[in-house]
User: Fold this.
Amino acid sequence: MPAGHTRQPRQPRQTRLIVSLDTKDSGQAIAWRDATAHASPMVKLGLEFTYAQGLEAVREVAGTRPLFLDLKLHDIPNTVASAIGSLARVRPAMLTIHASGGRAMVAAARRAIDETFAEGERPLLLAVTVLTSLDDDALHETGVESDVADQVVRLGRLAVSAGADGLICSPHEIRLLRAALGDEPVLVVPGIRPAGSAVGDQKRIMTPAQAHAAGADWIVVGRPITRAPDPAAAAAAIAAELSA
Assistant:
């Protein structure tokens, strides 16, 4: 952990739901936000919406809900640090970088958060390990000889030691990361599909209950909620599964 950076005390683990508002349309995003407010304490906006509508619309859609801003920053350290400074006006509760950007990049992101945001307003810095759309074969095609599990743990160790508050990982690596890094890092987990729902482009998935049992702090669910006939009911069912 970098000098001067103090992590917030961990609370007893309770897996909570983040609804991913994957759309280019502000009105649709607001409708999904409002429909799921009873079940999800946080919303996620990512590349699709931010590129289509811009940061002011991101702030408008988030409203009073805590925002998980998932832009997966990945560039040279100075550029990532500068980008984080530009994101301060939307006041995210969480933001993402790629752990594969390396130790210096993660450390620069950490410094930028600590220098830009006031105490008590600093977002959690979350490092993406290996995208949930990748399996061993796809990872090997990129030149990484390790399997997914080993690469996730390697990048997780690097990111946390460089100052990340937590990690983005598939549900299949939750237990591995807990064994390697303990309970302190916040684990935010996409690749969640309720039993019977379509897999889509995800390759390493679990149900909400399985991810909770494995030790996830947050799960991220998009299409199984937002494309459901009744998004409010779909979100409520997932929240109930997490609290069962």
Summary: The first helix runs from residue 26 to 35. The beta strands are 16-20, 42-46, 67-73, 94-98, 124-128, 166-168, 186-189, 218-221.
